[in-house]
Write a structure and sequence with these properties.
Elements: E1 25-30, H1 43-54, E2 58-63, H2 71-81, E3 85-88, H3 98-101
Parallel strand pairs: 1-2, 1-3
Length: 102
């Protein structure tokens, strides 16, 4: 699930506060669970994305509960979107597989 970016770019780049020609980008990842269950929308990520969009920050949500996870897909998103910040969900069941996915 991709959330479109805001039309009001965030004026400050976190790595260089004096560079105002580019906006901040955030990638949010809903990590895959190690077992099958009925998928539910990632309400926490959607709420966070809504706030970030309102602040003019470009956001993409990658939901690997409903779409197949692959390292190649993550690398492609990172290469093409080039986020400044990446956030990922985690639950206790992901403890053993978390380092493999990140």
């Amino acid at each position: 699930m991709m959330v479109p970016w805001s039309h009001r770019p965030h004026p400050i780049h976190p790595a260089n506060p004096y560079q105002e020609d580019r906006h901040m980008k955030v990638l949010l990842i809903n990590a895959p669970f190690p077992f099958e269950e009925s998928p539910t929308p990632p309400f926490g990520l959607v709420s966070l994305a809504g706030y970030l969009l309102r602040e003019g920050i470009e956001v993409i949500i990658e939901d690997y509960i409903v779409q197949p996870y692959s390292r190649e897909r993550v690398k492609k998103v990172l290469r093409e979107f080039r986020p400044d910040v990446v956030g990922a969900t985690a639950v206790t069941m992901n403890v053993k597989k978390g380092p493999v996915h990140t």
